[in-house]
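Hey team,

Filing this mostly as a record. A colleague (T.K.) asked me to run one chain through the structure pipeline before their review meeting, and I want the input and output archived in the tracker in case anyone asks later how it was produced. No errors, nothing strange. Just documentation.

Input sequence:
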Amino acid sequence: MNKDELREVILQILEEKKGEGLTSTEIRNILIEKGVEFNMIEFREALADLVREGKVKKTPDYNVRKFKFSLP
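Output structure:
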């Protein structure tokens, strides 16, 4: 799967979980459950690109000490 396809699947996952913020680990686990083949570097790059473009919002969750990703 190329990075553009991976970005679309990530957006789809966040749309399905709208209202919830997901950590990168949670997003990764959902991708694995769906049988999506990817490498971690492409995953991190795709997620970072989506944040930079403003398509995904990144907010800190101080309770779990991780960043949560959601749709803006």
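Quick notes for T.K.: The mean pLDDT is 95. The chain has one domain: 3-70.
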